[in-house]
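#help-structures
NK: newbie question, is this the right format to request a structure? protein is DUF3492 domain-containing protein
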Amino acid sequence: MRVALLTEGGFPYARGESALWCDRLLRGLEGHEFGVYALSRGPRQEAAGWRELPRNVVRVRTAPLWGPGPGPGPGSDGGAVSYGRRERRRFAEHFTALAEAVCAGEAEDGGEGPAAEEAGVRQSTAQADRFAAGLYGLAELASERGGLAPALRSEFAVRILESACRAPGALRAAHAAQVADLLAVTERLERALRPLSLDWYGARGEDPGLSAADLCHAVGGGLAALPGLLAARAYGVPLLITEYGVRLREHYLASAAGAVAPRSAGAPVRALLASFQGRLTREAYAQAQLITPGNAHARRWQERCGAHPGRLRTVYPGMDAAPFEAVGERAAPAGPSGGPWRSAAPTLVWVGRGEPSKDLVALLHAFARVREAVPEARLRIVETGAGAAAEGPGGAADYGAHCRALAARMFPCAASDALSGGQGPVSFEELGSPAAPTLAEAYGSGEVVVLSSVVEGFPVPLVEAMFCGRATVSTDVGAVCEVIGGTGLVVPPRNPRALADACVALLRDPARCALLGAAARSRALELFTVEQNTEAFRGIYLELMSHRSVRADGGAGGAVAAPGGEDASLPFACPAEAHVPGRWAGTARRVAAVATGGRRAGTGTRPPRTPADAHGGALPPVPSWATPERASDGAPAGRPAGRTTEPVPGDASGSPSGGSGGGAGRDSEAGPRRSGSAGRHGVVGGHESAGRHEGAGDEESASVTVGADMGEAEAR
């Protein structure tokens, strides 16, 4: 199976969100071919280079969501692609539709009852349809005329946006937008819509790109899913969306944080960009065949953001349990026999990044109460490193210094680290130091692991502690209750008294600690390993392929009317197993060849597919940019043509050479190319990658998201 992995700010870059999860997924599904289509968020992310690519990655294409827009194309006279009168009218029509949908407020409260509710649904559906019409219309115009950057940054676009903001029924914040706000919004919309102008979608004489994929797997429902939406509309390629942190929720959190930050965007800018992200997310959820949230917390957010419950399927993220196996196997009741890093005194352990959302202040106040009940108790705070939030005033660095000063005041004899004699009850340590060489040893040094966060997504430290067989005390935030599942104690957030009482109860009962730790380890090994995650997606890939129909003319993904008026689509005519090399698959291939008129599915370059909706019915006509007759031998004028690099497979620093500005996609081939149908397709047993969860780097966040992305910061 040929899978297109769509990412934003993540894999294949060494520093980014979900990079480790993507790497494990690709290595575990080595029987499938993957093409990676990545959107980068900043120059530091690109400068850090790529991860070591698995052998089944045959193509990597990247494009930036930062920096200046695309430069002039080969057919332009100067700095911008010139629009004629007809193209200018088309741009005005499509951008007006998109801008009016973005600026439109929520449905007005027309009363109670079924009639009012139905009217609200109709209005919401009409706005969603208008947004989709504008989005796909701009995609068609971009493909024909070579890009949208000059038009979106023009005075013409600013005037259209201003008219939409001043229209009756627009958002209240949009009415107050000034010229500077409108310029900021159009600039960030241009960056967000750059995927519409990329040459990733295939045309005659070019790389077929996403048109040749069997499945588009988007890591996130935001901008990462935008190329998948175009491929689904033009070629009927199924779209799968995986979210372990809901992108729209992260945008809302970043926008709220920016509201109180100095030199932040104004309220009109934040409101309009949040509305755009919401519309785009709802369109992605509506067009996806399946959405896989990482936990019930993310699932509830997706439902609130418009995802249909019938298309949601929870798949827990997979984590490597091997580094914690030794500590988990020797887990024993509290006492000095737990290992060389185990303290003789009853010890609480906290592991994570020292950020305000982790609420270490409440933990210190709770520990003061613990000391009153258990005077010999100790608290170890192990910091795993600072993320992007560490920069600037009020970041993690300042917060960590504040917590150290508070601990020194509350516990005057507290030592600043574990190497200063160990006289104090509180110690601040860095992961990798002699006191905490590895994560497993840090968790193994205590009887109880504590999580005091006020904001959390998927609690990775809890899962790691469960792998180590440790009892846990956590605050009720995010997916904590779902992960713990009765194997630990949960208390309300921002409640030091409740946190202290729970810790004291476990420290005074070693047998209960051991029992909860054993149960936690069994639960983690059952639900949160790499193996279960990989097998879940192996089955999902096969399921999505089995539900697709194959046309009688050999194309895939759409239904074609037969001469007699009957539906000529042939469900299951080309099962995924038919791609597996081997003599045993010959029967399936012959059946597929007969069903497709003598052609074996998957050979050569595919013809353009007829669009189809989720029920197999025909969609509106394929956009002209997806029709071979409208494609030239080369890239259209002004279209980002892309630069080519050849990374060496297995080179961890295989970042593309050359500049990284503009909207040009960079294409690289990592591995052998397909020849005919003899690719490395099918379902073959895989292996997981060793390693552990790692936080997001400190790359610059794309300006589209208004603020620093908090999704990966919540993971630690």
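mod (FA): yep, format's fine, and the tokens are attached above. Residues 473 and 502 are 7 Å apart (CA to CA).
NK: thank you!
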